[in-house]
Specification:
85 residues, mainly beta
């Protein structure tokens, strides 16, 4: 976390990451950052794929999202993502 206090889902656990805090998450764990406050936060996220993909190979989405990209953590129940503009 670069600025602000952020929240992060790691599998079924939700943690709070303080300003200038860091988290190391293994490649086999589901991870999802989110902000359930009215205050802006700034994340620095560094990641790498488990393996290099072949030119026509697609990544396994189950490693990235629990069900689909728009699924939100329980703390954001009732919110819509992406927001309607």
């Amino acid at each position: 976390m670069v600025e602000g206090v952020g929240r992060m889902r790691i599998n079924d656990q939700t943690i709070t990451v303080p300003k200038h805090g860091g988290v190391l998450v293994g490649p086999e764990l589901l991870r999802q950052v989110f902000n359930d406050t009215d205050t802006e936060v700034l994340w620095l996220i560094i990641g790498a794929p488990e393996k290099e993909l072949e030119p026509d190979e697609q990544p396994d989405q189950k490693l990235l999202y629990p069900k689909e990209p728009t699924q939100l953590p329980p703390e954001l129940l009732g919110c819509v993502w992406p927001p309607k503009s």
